[in-house]
Design a protein that fits this description.
Blueprint: E1 2-6, E2 9-13, E3 25-35, E4 41-42, E5 49-57, E6 59-63, E7 66-70, E8 75-79, E9 84-88, E10 95-104, H1 107-113, E11 121-122, H2 127-142, H3 147-172, H4 175-188, H5 196-203, H6 207-218, H7 222-240, H8 245-251, H9 257-268, H10 272-278
Antiparallel strand pairs: 1-2, 2-3, 3-10, 4-9, 5-8, 5-10, 6-7, 6-9, 8-11
Length: about 280
């Protein structure tokens, strides 16, 4: 059955056939969705496992008090029996994704083994994932004698990919490498208005996990570290150029010169102008 809720939402439901129990996995509903800010957040509980593949834009997922940003070519795994919410990220104009709600033997155990409740986002897995979601949707849209068999094959393939991706990630990346990855990306675009959800997405951790691992690695929080990095850049610009204070502030990610001066004084112990004069500029 297809429900054309609106032009941005396609939903295909499926009632498993009489031979469906021969297969370990089932797809109960799948679809394509495009969210905008006006659509708000989905919070309804369905008591299914749901996989979400982002095509474009940026989504925001809240699970267990933590937030993760779902960007293109990532998969989010939600247990919709738990408290959750998801919708368009406030920094994006849309979130376009494919999704499926699934049931199956052992899914709860895999969900627990991969610690998905703490980190529901899986990194880029490639075109195979997009093709799997499209195949699932097309399979439910057509419906035939092979629907249950195809659904089982699609879910089995995705579970295999997710287990391989998370297992490889845990064996090859320690907490220091994740933190260093965030540092490299921030330094490459220090003037950007970084949000904790974006930093968490870079590290493929939840916001709370990133905060904890950053603290262990640097003895400070991600946002405090960014503030100090911006002040270090500001000191260089103030001593190596004659740029106006407002221009230095903008280059360091501060649209408001007053806010910049306040943070500079708090960290350097003097105003930007005082610091420049002390350096003989």
């Amino acid at each position: 059955m297809t429900i054309p809720a609106d032009q941005s939402n396609e939903i295909f439901f499926h009632t498993p056939g009489r031979h469906a129990d021969a297969y370990p996995y089932k797809i109960l509903v799948a679809g394509r969705t495009r969210f905008a800010h006006r659509d708000g957040f989905v919070t309804r509980r369905f008591h299914h496992h749901t996989l979400i593949y982002t095509l474009s834009g940026l989504g925001l997922i809240e699970v267990g008090g933590s937030r993760v940003a779902a960007g293109p070519q990532t998969i989010a795994w939600l247990d919709t029996s738990m408290q959750y919410a998801h919708g368009c990220h406030p920094d994006a104009d849309h979130w376009h994704y494919l999704w499926m709600s699934i049931e199956g033997h052992g899914l709860d155990a895999v969900f627990s083994f991969l610690r998905v409740a703490a980190n529901p986002l899986f990194a880029t897995i490639g075109q195979v994932s997009a093709d799997s979601f499209e195949r699932a949707i097309g399979n439910l849209a057509r419906r035939g004698q092979t629907t249950d068999a195809i659904s089982n094959a699609v879910v089995a393939q995705l579970v295999e990919l997710l287990v391989a991706e998370r297992g490889e990630q845990e064996s090859s990346e320690d907490r220091g490498e994740r933190v260093l990855r965030v540092m490299r990306d921030v330094r490459a675009d220090i003037a950007r208005n970084w949000q904790i959800e974006e930093l968490a997405a870079i590290s493929n951790l939840s916001a709370s996990q990133l905060h904890r691992q950053f603290k262990q690695k640097t003895a400070t929080t991600p946002m405090d570290w960014i503030r100090h990095e911006r002040m270090n850049l500001a000191k260089r610009l103030l001593t190596e150029s004659d740029a106006k204070i407002s221009a230095v502030a903008l280059a360091c990610g501060y649209a408001d010169p007053y806010h910049f001066s306040r943070d500079f004084r708090r960290i350097a112990g003097q105003s930007p102008s005082e610091f420049r004069r002390a350096q003989g500029q």
